[in-house]
Amino acid sequence: MYIPEYHRLEDPAVALAFMRANPFAIVVSAAQGSPFATHIPILVSEAGDRILLRGHFARANPHWKLLEAERESLVIFHGPHAYISPRLYESRESVPTWNYAAVHAYGSGRIFQEPERVTEVLLETIASFEPPYLDQWRHFSEEYRAKMLSQIVGFEIAVERFEAKFKLSQNRSGADQSRVIQSLETSEDSAISGVAKLMKDHGLGT
C-alpha cells in the first residue's frame, strides 16, 4: 500500500484497536495468479506479541482451500472515509482529495474443520456481534447445529506484518484541518462524520 510518511501509522496498539472497531474485512488470497477476495467478519485477538485473525468461510466458498495451501493472504480493514472539497482550504490553489483510514494485515493462514474448533470460532463470533443470539443457537436441535457446522470451515491467520494508513489531512494546516472537521462532523452519514471523529481522536485541527 502506498503510504506517504505523514499518513503512516506505526503504533500497533492503535492499529489493533482500529481492526477491532472495523471487523468486517476483506480477505484477499492468490488463486492461480489472480486475486480472490471474500468480505467477511474477522475476530481480532492477541497471542503474546502476535495478532491473530480468526473467522469462518462457507464451505461452498473455495477461498478456504487457498488458505489450506498456506499461501500469504492480505486482510484489509477499512474504516470511515469522506470526500474533501478544496473549498475548505485557505489556499485557492488546492485540489480535491479523499480522507480515509485502512489497515492491511499480511500472514499465512491455516484452516480447521473439527466440529469442536469450528464451534469455538462460531461462539466467539456470536459473543462479539450478538450475545443474546447464543441462547437461540443453543436451543436448536443437535441435528440442525451439526448441519450448520458442516457447512462452514474455520480459519486462523497469524499476522506477520501490517501496514496502517490514516489519511486525515495531516499535511494541511491546523486551520484547514479544523474546517475539514467542522464540515464533516455534521453529516448524517457515519462514514463521513466518522472521519471527523478520527481526526479529533488523533489531535488534528487544534
* Domain tally: 1
Roughly what is the average pLDDT, rounded to an integer? 94
Separation, N- and C-terminal Cα atoms: 29 Å
CATH superfamily: Electron Transport, Fmn-binding Protein, Chain A
The CATH topology corresponds to: Pnp Oxidase, Chain A
Count of discrete alpha- or pi-helical segments spanning 4 or more residues: 7
Report the sheet with the most strands, covering strand number, pairing sense and barrel closure: 8 strands, antiparallel
User: Which structural class is indicated by helix and strand composition?
Assistant: alpha+beta
> Ranges with pLDDT <50 over ≥5 residues?
none
Keywords, separated by commas or semicolons:
single chain, 206 residues, alpha+beta, Pnp Oxidase, Chain A, 8-stranded antiparallel β-sheet, 8 strands
Give a nutshell description of this structure.
Helix content is 33%, strand content 35%. With 206 residues, the protein is an alpha+beta fold.
